[in-house]
C-alpha cells in the first residue's frame, strides 16, 4: 500500500520553504505533491530508508513537499516506471542499474561479472570520479537527474531443482534475471537459459516452475521470500547491482533551490542509512536463510570467471561499452578479461 493517497504532480507550485516563503508559495498552501515509484518490496532496506526520508522531508517542509512512495512495483515494471519518469508522469523513481542498461547502456557497467572485489573500490567508482560522471551524463541525456546509488548487493543464485556448484550445473537452467542485457549475456555465456520476469511476479514463477531459479542479493532473496519455494543457495557473487534514485529532470529543475536542497539532503542521508542497513542485513542473512532450510554452498568463483573469458564475455562488453568507459571501470577493478 502507498504511504499516502495518490497525488498529482505540482512542480510548478512555486514552493519556497521557511524564511524564504513568498506570496506565491502562500497562495499555494497545498504545496508540491509528487510521486515516486519503486520495484523494491516493503521489507527491503531501500524501501524503509526512503520512507524515513520522505517522512523527514514532509515534516521539515511542514507538509509543503509531499512525495508519495509506491513500492513493490505498484506503478508497473521497472521499464514501465522508467518510461513514466521520462514523460514526467511521476517525479522520482528507484530503479536498478541493471534494468537502466536498456535505456542508457553505460548505466549497467558496474554490473560486469566479477569486476569489483568489494565495496571500497565500488563506492569509490560510483560516488565520484570518471566512471560515475560518465554514467550520470548518460542518464542526463535522457532528461534524468541522478542522485546517489542505493546498494542492492552482490548477487547469488538460488534454485529449486539442483545445486549450483560448478559451471556445468548452470547448463540449461531457466533462471530469472531482470531486464538486463549484461546479466542475460552473463548467464547465456555460462550455459544457462535466462528469462526476464518482473520482480513482483518472480515468487509465483518459481513456485510454478516457470523458472528453475533466480539470481539476486541475499537481502532481496529474504525480502521477496522466495526461499519458501526454493531449496539451494549458491554464493556465486557473480555481479553487483545497485539502484539509482532518479528524478524527472524538468520537474526537478522547476523546484525552487531550497526545496531541491532539502530533498537532496534527505535522499543522501537515506542512501547512507540504506547502505549500512544493507551490509548488516547481508552479513546476517546467510545464517537466517540456513535456518529457514536452504542448503547453502560457496563455489570456487575462479572457474566461472574463466568460463566467461573463454566465452568472450569480457571482450564483447569492452567493445560494447567502449575502450574509454572500460578503462574508467578498470581504474577501480584492475584488468578484466584477457
From TrEMBL:
One of its GO terms (biological process) is transmembrane transport. CDD domains: PBP2_TRAP_Siap_TeaA_like. Transmembrane segments: none annotated. InterPro entries: DctP_fam, TAT_signal, TRAP_DctP, TRAP_DctP_sf. PANTHER family: PTHR33376, SIALIC ACID-BINDING PERIPLASMIC PROTEIN SIAP. The keyword Transmembrane helix does not apply. Keywords: Signal, Transport. This is ABC transporter substrate-binding protein. It is found in: Cell envelope. GO terms for cellular component: outer membrane-bounded periplasmic space. Belongs to the bacterial solute-binding protein 7 family. Its main location: other. Gene3D superfamilies: Bacterial extracellular solute-binding protein, family 7. It comes from the Bacteria.
